Amino acid sequence: MLLAVIGVLSGAWLGADLLKGGAKRAARAATRPKPEPAVAGTKGGSLALPLAAAVPARKPRVASADTKPAEDKPVSAPGAQESHSDIRQVHGPFGYLMELGKRFGADLCPAWAASLSFFSILSIPPVLLCGLAVLGALIKPAEAEQQVQRVLANVLPGGGRAAERQAAQIMKQLNVEKSIETLHEQRGVAGVVGVVSLFWAAMQIFINATTPMNAAFRAKETRGWFKLRGYALFLLFVAGALFLLSLLPSAGASVIRRIPWFSNLPDPVPPIIAFLILLVGVAINATMFAVIYRYLPSPSAGIEWREAFFAGAIVAVLWEAAKIGFAFYLSRFGNYDKVYGSLGGAVALVFWIYYSSLILLLGAEIAKLYSDVREAKRNPAPA
């Protein structure tokens, strides 16, 4: 619902902006002086007024203090608009919501979310195989496949047998079993090169996400080629570990009872304990998003931990709500199997990744807006 409201507000703002631009162009065209026609002269046919004199001479352009070279301005992502209003003129919750919707639309977040979804789909097989490569070195390949399939079922919204069925379909379509055998058989240099290639492909999702992040934070990318990939590898391990931890509460009481400290957890779980388990999952997700907002954009964005955690907490709540809403939609209305057949699980996963990408970019806009509000309070406008 929040994303729908923001989308409507973004469309309204863009329409009003286009109307204002058209009115300004029409006013300039009406006030522009028209050139006088050339006047024919005497019988001899000579021109009394040369053509050059009929056209008004252009005034030389004078460089003003506001004119700056393009390289002096902060470079953002392609398509990003310099549309952020003066935050000092925004007041009240509705005003901040309007400003958030304006930025969300001006920075082309829906289009960037579609782009991120595409790269995320390409990164899913390497991510799964990276997990299998790590688990395969510790446990048997068959057990590693079961663990990865269980994790994938917990990622898919809705849970239960439907999610397990979709996870099994995805694992089968990706031919994961054959990949496990290949990773298990290859040893030595070939195996190391294969695992490194998998990690390289898996971290591309973070590398491709830097452009829309920098667009939201109005930041110029200052990291070099190697440094940017170092950040992506760091986020792959840290955010990935936090993501796996966040799946424990949603995995159910049977999985939590395997942890030594929670072996005596009653069955069924009391509602208060179930609520606390849910809060733990949300807190871990908030930390994961905060790490992403802190380290994924360029350092020139200047995002502090307070702003990153503020946006991360909101996005974690929205993500849990989106899980519940998307699961309800799939159970009541969205039966993709009837339309796409055996690809229904993969199509549902694509839609879920798109919604998650929208929420991720919305959090970036929230962090930037909160940063601007704090900056405006530290530096109030002169009287």
Descriptors:
383 residues; disordered N terminus; single chain; mainly alpha
Describe the model:
70% of the residues lie in helices and 0% in strands. With 383 residues, it is mainly α. The chain has one domain (108-378). Helix 4 packs across helix 15 (344-378) and helix 5 crosses helix 6. The two termini are 40 Å apart.
In terms of topology, how is this protein built?
Elements lengths: L1 H30 L19 H4 L37 H15 L2 H28 L4 H15 L4 H14 L2 H10 L2 H15 L1 H14 L7 H26 L2 H4 L14 H25 L9 H28 L3 H5 L3 H35 L5
Helix pairs in contact: 1-3, 3-15, 4-5, 4-7, 4-8, 4-9, 4-15, 5-6, 9-10, 9-15, 10-12, 12-13, 13-15
Organism: uncultured Armatimonadetes bacterium
InterPro entries: Virul_fac_BrkB
Protein name: YihY/virulence factor BrkB family protein
Taken as a percent bin, the fraction of beta residues is under 5%
The biggest beta sheet reads: none
- Number of domains as seen in the coordinates: 1
Low-confidence stretches: 1-16, 37-55, 59-76, 78-83
Backbone shape: globular
Pfam families: Virul_fac_BrkB
Organism: uncultured Armatimonadetes bacterium
Protein name: YihY/virulence factor BrkB family protein
Subcellular location: Cell membrane
TL;DR of this structure?
This protein is mostly helical. The chain has helices spanning 2-31, 51-54, 92-106, 109-136, 141-155, 160-173, 176-185, 188-202, 204-217, 225-250, 253-256, 271-295, 305-332, 336-340, 344-378.
